Predict the structure.
Amino acid sequence: MSKTTNEHEDEIFQYVSRKDIEKKRKKKEKSLGRELFSLFIYFVFVIAISYVIVTFVGQRTQVSGSSMYPTLHNEDNLIIDKISYRFNDPERFDIVVFEYLGEPGTHYVKRIIGLPGETVQIKDSIIYINGEPLEENYGAEAILAAERAGEPITLGEDEYFVLGDNRNHSKDSRSYEVGNVNKSQIIGKVWIRIWPLSSFGKVE
């Protein structure tokens, strides 16, 4: 017995419907695949950018201790500018983070006072650069102990003399343990304080 026209139409309709459903399913799979691939590319891009920023541009660090008081406080969170010194030399009064050679993996944050080739000496709480008193107002109080800087210290090529702003509670270039800081030890310049939010801003 032959099928009616309506039955044929129903079969054709069902066939077309199944075909449309299959097309839609494959389209969704392709769309999901593209989304997953795009997400993967996005994560790779973010990781790559983060690596470049942390390695060459900036790095987050946290202050431990009070050696830079009152400029910096314990547990302040900072962003270090790691790229500037690739093109320019550190300048006097820059606050820098450098590697402490006495303890691998440990970094100090101090202020640059003496530059390469200069002679630094501390007498009667006064800092002398090449025999001339240094005009500065970063110290929290008068220096009580000159330590090795009681005698003239001539800095070599690429060497810097650093001090903590909290002069009487800081282990810095006055100490034989720290000594002169070579440029190769410097990680970067302190740029921005990001925490606490109440103190957010550029660090001078």
Notes: Helices lie at 5-57.
